[in-house]
Amino acid sequence: MPAGTLYRGREGMWSWVAHRVTGVLIFFFLFAHVLDTALVRVSPQAYDSVISTYKTPLVNLMEYGLTAAILFHALNGLRVVAVDFWSKGPKYQRQMLWSVVGVWVVLMAGAFYPILQHTLRTWFGG
Amino acid sequence: MSTDTPADLVVPSLQAHTGQGLGTGNPADALVVEPARARSKRTPRRTRTNFEMLAWLFMRLSGVVLVVLVLGHLLINIVLDGGVSKISFAFVAGKWASPFWQFWDLLMLWLAMLHGSNGMRTVINDYAEKDATRLWLKGLLGVTTVFTVLLGTLVIFTFDPNI
């Protein structure tokens, strides 16, 4: 079997793809986020009116999605550091990816209500 | 065989299986992509910097710091204490009354923008095949990055709660 087939199409490649896609998404949000925060230098009203769009259900849901992207990028980034600097990193890269996915699922489940509570309260009261 | 081979002889990867030069004799070497530049005495002086290695190292060091800064930022701003409901001008003014949070946000801004910008540079290098396209995209990226970092820095340092 030629070299490389154990990487291509397996955990190593897909985690690389996900890392890249989430990284680009986060970069574009970061650019928008610096611009919206800069409105605090214009007026409290200008800032608060833009922030009110962050509190609409659709954008609130996108914040949950952004958190999902950031959390994956952060956890997988720590895995990349381990692969590069830990002598046994490359050997355990698969196990580390599934650990990343496991921690990600648990933290995203835990963040569901806290992040979306604004929308949930708007819709269901309480 | 290796004793009569000059130490600095580099053969194309397609000939690596011949055992000449730096080839290992492994047939799989034919599939290996040639290194971007060979480290020999003939390498032009202007390419002898460690920029790419430093960029690689920066991504890992800044990444570890950003995990703490960004996850802490998310936790305080959109997870704890009512989530996004509480965000307002007054919330920002309350946070930036403390030099601790000013420094936190300033460091986060610089590291995240440089980390993200270097990541985008890698993406552009990978997918933009024409020299002119790469040049324009990286130029735009550079201008955008400098503008965003300076704007954010100015906002943090000149913030006025009584505006």
In short:
With 126 residues, chain A is mainly alpha-helical. In chain A, 79% of the residues lie in helices and 0% in strands. The longest helix of chain A has 32 residues, at 93-124.
Give your account of this protein's structure.
The complex is a heterodimer of chains A (126) and B (163). Chain A has 126 residues and is an all-alpha fold. Chain A has one domain (11-121): 3 helical TM bundles of succinate and fumarate reductases (Up-down Bundle), CATH 1.20.1300.10. Helices cover 79% and strands 0% of the residues of chain A. Chain A has 4 helices and no strands. Chain B has 2 domains: 2-46, no CATH class; 50-158, Fumarate reductase/succinate dehydrogenase, transmembrane subunit (3 helical TM bundles of succinate and fumarate reductases). The mean pLDDT of chain B is 85. Chain B is 58% helix and 0% strand. At the A-B interface, helix 1, helix 2, helix 3 and helix 4 of A face helix 1, helix 2, helix 3 and helix 4 of B.
What is the count of β-strands of chain A? Answer: 0
Distance between the termini of chain B: 78 Å
CATH superfamily of the largest domain in chain B, please?
Fumarate reductase/succinate dehydrogenase, transmembrane subunit
Biggest sheet details of chain B: none
How many structural domains of chain A? 1
- Which CATH architecture of the largest domain in chain B is right? Up-down Bundle
Task: Report the major sheet of chain A.
Answer: none
